[in-house]
Amino acid sequence: AAARRRQQQQQQQQQQQQQQQQQQQQQQQQPSPSASTAQTSQLQPNL
After folding, report:
1. What integer pLDDT is reported at residue 22 of this predicted model?
2. What is the three-state SS of 1-47?
3. What pLDDT does 26 receive?
4. CA angle 24, 20, 30 (to 5 degrees)
5. Angle, to 10 degrees, between the axis of helix 2-29 and the axis of helix 31-46?
6. Which parts of this chain are annotated as the region Disordered (predicted)?
7. What is the pLDDT, as a whole number, of residue 27?
């Protein structure tokens, strides 16, 4: 039973790592539009 629990825990950890990698990739693809909007919003109040 202990061995089965270990295998289940390892599988869960691997799934979590894969999900985190996917989220990071999505965040990397998005920044160009979001960063441009953030920059414009910061520049406007100074003007």
Report:
1. 65
2. CHHHHHHHHHHHHHHHHHHHHHHHHHHHHCHHHHHHHHHHHHHHHHC
3. 60
4. 20
5. 50
6. 22-47
7. 58
Q: How many Å apart are CA 21 and CA 30, to the nearest integer?
A: 15
pLDDT, tens digit, for every residue of 1-47?
A: 677 778 888 877 777 777 666 666 665 555 554 444 444 445 555 55
Joined tokens for residue 22: 């996917």
Instruction: Enter the pTM of the model.
Output: 0.32
What are 47's two structure tokens?
């003007």
CA distance 35 to 47: 19
